[in-house]
Amino acid sequence: MSVSKKVSGIAPSLTLEITAKAKKMKAEGISIISFGAGEPDFNTPDYIINSAKKALDDGFTKYTAASGMPELKKAICEKFKKDNNLDYNQNQIIISTGAKSSLYHAICAIVDDGDEVILPSPYWLTYPELIMLAGGKTVAVSATAKNGYKITAEQLENAITDKTKCLILNSPNNPTGAVYSKGEIEAIAVVCEKHGLFVISDEIYEKLVYAGEKHYSIAQVNDYMKEHTIIVNGMSKTYSMTGWRIGYLAAPEKIAKAISSMQSHTTSNACSFSQYASVTALVDPEGEVFISKMQKVFDERRKFMVETLSSIKDIVCIEPKGAFYVFIDVSKLYGKSYNGKIIKGSLDFADCALQKGVALIPGIAFGDDDSIRLSYAISLDDIKEGLNRLKNFIEELN
Fold first, then answer.
1. N or C: which end of the chain has fewer CB within 10 A?
2. Alpha carbon distance 376, 156 (integer Å)
3. Model pLDDT, residue 101
4. What is the dihedral of CA 9, 14, 17, 22, to 10 degrees?
5. Closest by Cα among 224, 190, 226 to 84
6. Other CB atoms within 10 Å distance of the CB of residue 2
7. What are the φ/ψ torsions at residue 201 (nearest 5 degrees)?
8. Distance from CA of residue 92 to its chain's centroid?
C-alpha cells in the first residue's frame, strides 16, 4: 500500500522532533533547558476555566453550527472593532479547531493547483506544508536581518508572476519576532492592490508587542485590502489557551461561506465548551488584566535575552519587537567542532548544543539555516541557566 503524493511529501516538524528528543533526555534524568516552547508558560486564567466548567455543568456539550456559535462570532466582531477598527458581520467569521485549521481552510479557499503563494522567509514551518497540501507552490522571499527580518514592497513586487495568487503575512512574526510598521504594511498593500493579490494575514501574536510597537493589520489599509484579506487569529497565545483549540478567521463573505462549507465536511464545529469559554475570555474585563501582566513578563524576559545574547561572541542578535521568540544568526560558528563533530548548519548546531543540556530549534525549519530560534516562554531562571549553558557551549567550540 502506498501513501498519496501530497501526504508523503509532508516534512515532519523539526520543532516537535527536537522537543521530543529533549523530553526523552529529561526522562532519562539528564538536565535539559528547552528554548523550544511555542506556547505561553502561563496557565489559562481561572475566569476562563470556570466558564468552561459552567458550560459543562449546564450540558453545553453538543454540536454547534459548523462555523461556530453566534455568541462567539459576536464577541469576535466586537474585538475586531475595538482592537483593529474593522467592521465585520457574523457571516464573515469562522471559528475553527485552532488557528492552524483556520490557515489551512483559508489557503484551500483561494489557492488552486499551481498557484504561487509568496511567503516571507524566515517563516513558520507549517506554512509551506499547508500550501503544498492545497496544491499551491511556495515562493519564499528572503526577509534579511539587515531589514529586521521584514520584506520590502520592492521585494514583493519583484517576486510576483502571472501565477501569484496571494501573500501570507505574519506580524508579529514567528520565528523572528519582527513587527511590520504601519508604513511598511501600507507600502506592501499598494503592491497587493496593483497586482490584485489576496493576503492571508496571520495575527495570532497580535497582543504580544513591545518597545512601543503597535500591531497594524493590512485589512485596515483601505476597502480593497479588507475585501482581499483573510485575517487569522485565535485564543491560544493571547489567553494562553493552546490546548483549547479555538482559532478564528475573518474574511469577505463569499470566501467565509466557502470555508464554512469546507469546514462542515472536515472538522465540523470547534469544541463547544471551548467556544463558550472563549466568549468569556473576550468579553470579561479580566482578560485585559491577564494580557497586560503576561506581556510585561515576556517583555522583561525579552530584554534580558537580547542583552545576554548580544554579549556572546560570534552571535548576531536582532531585537525582536513581538511574539516570544529571539532569532539569532550563528553562522559565524559554522566550521567549528564539538566533541569531534563539525558544525555545518543549524541542525548540527542544535544537536551539539543538546549535548550541553540546551534544546534549541534549528533555523532550517523556518527557511534560514544560518539561524537558531529561542523561545522566552519559559521562566527567567531557566532562561538564565540556559543562556549560560549556551555561552559555555560556544566557548568550547574549536
1. N
2. 31
3. 98
4. 170
5. 226
6. 5
7. -105, 105
8. 22
pLDDT tens per residue, range 278-319: 999 999 999 999 999 999 999 999 999 999 999 999 999 999
| C-alpha separations of 201 from 20, 80, 353 in Å | 30, 14, 34
**Nearest Cα residue to 70 out of 54, 98, 92, 52:** 92
Q: Are 230 and 249 in contact (CB under 8 A)?
A: yes
> 166-201: per-residue pLDDT in tens?
999 999 999 999 999 999 999 999 999 999 999 999
> From CA 199, how far away is CA 90, in angstroms rounded?
20
Cell of 311: 554579549
**Which residues, other chains included, contact 243 with Cβ-Cβ below 8 Å and sequence gap of 6+?**
none
Cα(232)–Cα(71) distance, rounded to whole angstroms?
Answer: 19
Residue 11 in this model has a pLDDT that exceeds 80: no
C-alpha cell at 162: 502571472
* Closest of 396, 317, 389, 323 to residue 359, by C-alpha: 389
Single-letter amino acid, residue 353: A
**pLDDT tens-digit readout, 334-386:** 999 999 999 999 999 999 999 999 999 999 999 999 999 999 999 999 999 99
Q: Cell numbers 506544508 correspond to what residue?
A: 129
Q: How many CB atoms lie within 10 A of CB 376?
A: 28
